[in-house]
Amino acid sequence: MLQFRGSPLLDGEENLPDVPLEVPRANAEFASTQLVARLGGSGPVRSASSA
Question: pTM higher than 0.70, yes or no?
Answer without folding.
Answer: no
